[in-house]
Amino acid sequence: MSVNIQTILDQASFSREDLALLLKTGEEERKLLFAKAAEVKEDYVGKKVYYRGLVEYSNLCGKNCLYCGIRAGNKKARRYEVTEEEVLEAARYAWENKFGSVVIQAGERSGKDYVRRIERLLRQIKQMSNGELGITLSLGEQSEETYRRWFEAGAHRYLLRIEVSNPDLYHKYHPRNKAHNYQARLDSLFLLRKLGYQVGTGVMIGLPFQSVEDLADDLMFFKEYDIDMVGMGPYIEHEDTPMYQYRDQLLPKMERFYLSLKMVATLRILMKDINIAATTAMQAIDPMGREKSIKVGANIIMPNLTPSRYREDYLLYEDKPCTDEDAEECKRCLEARIHMAGAEIGYGEWGDSKHFARRKKQ
Ligand code: SAH
Ligand code: SF4
Q1: Taking the model in full, what pTM does it have?
Q2: Residue 254 is part of which domain span?
């Protein structure tokens, strides 16, 4: 069996079946996968890990994804929006500490005032940092006009997870209505690309009803859509969501964790020069989860810069880590942990996707 896995790893291209076999590897064989992924990472993107200071701007959301703790229907969630001053303070912290970039993430909202507020924030962050801070947005599906305005105001990367690439499965995890439409989400990814953003997407791993073959398809999807960045992590149940009813059907958390690590490693081998994030959900299961992701292929990390008083309200899933640490403490321990994972930090650099640069040249 090991011979088989090594043979697959030595191939130049991979079929869906190959990918599924890599995702199914057991404790011994997965070491071969991880070693290959580490090698590919070093050759194609190097040792550097780039920081994106994460601001969880608001947990107000107009949508009702069935898995998410801040869905509109969760009346128990205490809603907030970070003030303009606080966002700028977090961005200043990121800039002064040479984080290179920030990510602004929130529930999905529209409305003129909201769009304008974000636009204003973008301009202010750019101005405050002399254009030095890179800005990634993760604010869900928006109109072309909104995406364009935010791009012109200074955002240059956008994260919009497809969540699950199979349209039939998509409807198992989302209400069946206009606001939750697979095709619309896909169209948004195209729009973002057309407007010039570096485009990131991703999926949740270990969802109920999802097979390893489905995950292999997710990887093929990233490849087919020639995506620049990927953020993916384990699905983690949340008590106040409709999907909690399926908790008995889930893989144990550690299995979801290892499946996620294998997804990262396999993706690194499949798409050698993209940016891959070590996600917070990995850390929610294993305190060293992000560092382990870095070892097997991830090269982006998003230290949380959300002001402490809001943190425990941005609960997408249970056991979300780092809700009680302040930014300074997070920074010091993270730096040491990244070095322990054999990586360096790309201080003061945007750390754009090498894949994006190559795609633009073509
Ligand atoms: N509203 C925006 C961005 C915030 S949600 C959007 O949906 O695009 C960010 C991500 O959190 C989602 O894309 C989803 O993949 C992840 N997420 C939500 N609930 C989760 C859960 N229960 N377990 C793991 N990840 C979850
Ligand atoms: Fe809202 Fe995003 Fe959660 Fe869906 S995943 S309910 S859009 S915050």
Answers
A1: 0.96
A2: 49-361
